[in-house]
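seq/struct pair 1
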Amino acid sequence: MRRIAATFAIAGLALTGAFNSALAADANPALVQVVESRSAQERARDGARHPVETLTFFQVEPGMTVAEALPGGGWYTKILAAYLGAEGTLYGVNYTDRMWPMFGFATEDWVKERVAATAQFPTQVKDFTDNGIAAKGFTFNTVPPEASGSVDRVLMIRALHNLSRFEADAGTLSQALAAVRGMLKDDGLVGVVQHRLPESASDEAADGSRGYLKQSAVIALFDKAGFELVAASEINANAMDKPGPEDTVWRLPPSLRVSEDNPEEKAANQAIGESDRMTLLFRKAS
């Protein structure tokens, strides 16, 4: 419990400019080396994603077993695979197969690609590193027996909004959090980074369909699922992101979807930068 207590101790710095510096100073040199050894293109988003500070806050260490929710193109996967090393294990956890067709834009070919990506996760990891790390892909409803009660960290980085979006109709978020709880060791932790909507926004606006959730709602959802908050951080905050009633997170970099044909709007959204994000750490409730 020493590491968790230490996290509480530094959480009080979350609203000061010293917080990121304190985390960076406390970072494992091996993590810093992995992050800094990537190409300039790969490092281009570090100023918005703060991988060293974020993984330090989540207390990720070499040799751990880590489950990464929605690994996607592998931005964090590449860092994690190299950092965890040969003694580590990395799981890529995707939405259940039945969830992909729920997206309004989903085509048959897109759904097939997303479903196939789960089984391809070990190959993706091998493309990133030949260090011998164990890797496996599965979905929230196909957790293999060896993963049950064996995971040190579950990382849900920008992974909650769509699970929340379809919760009312399909119970997607409840099922995912139950799976996460089942994967974790008794002393395991869940790290969350999520696009954040101001608490003053309506609950309807924060259902996940715009990419945003309220921090209070996320904490309440985890509480209901049998977790308790360990600490909250402003590592990934962006005070310039002040979404209006109709704004989606995808108006901002890197997507810039709504302003492709409007140079002035595009420039304004680029000036805001990436979204304001909550960074939360949870453990199983005792």
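seq/struct pair 2
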Amino acid sequence: MKTAYVAVYETLADWEIGHLAVELRTGRFTGVPWSVVTVGESLEPVVTMGGMRVVPDVTIADVEPDAGDLLVLAGSVQWDAGGGEAFAKLAAQFLDAGVPVAAICGATAGLARAGLLDERKHTSAAKEYLQATGYQGGDEYVDARAVVDGDLITAGPDSPVQFARAVLQRLALADERKLEAYEGVFHRADATAYPALVG
């Protein structure tokens, strides 16, 4: 079974990665369930922005990119406060190993500060948001709901469904017809797309 490591930290923006985590863990539309493993800086519980208490399965020190197939980074207050450096370093290790990294909202700012967006196409909440980090990747910014560039998937906070779709696409877990149906059902509330999603 393939493994998705999901970083967890105080004020994790739960809604940003909810769609993706469910589709990976259940495989309900892809037919391929994954193991979802939460990663903390320690094994101490964290409280998400929505008030849910999460006890990490493992710590950063326990994680080797070769043992996983994806790293997921959600937004949180820590990224905007200039924190998250340990997780940005972990992302760098995953990217260096050719293992996909999916970052949404504030996590993109953390990756920007770490120099990981300087030479990769990416998106975020807004171009100005990332420019405030002082990063050098402004020319690589794409004004889109989600962007895939090689092993990096990025999205802004308003695009959790597009984020999930982009990751499922990068992982080759669904074809274009099913991905379009997925966005149709969960973003556009298009009931006519449901048969293609479950078919």
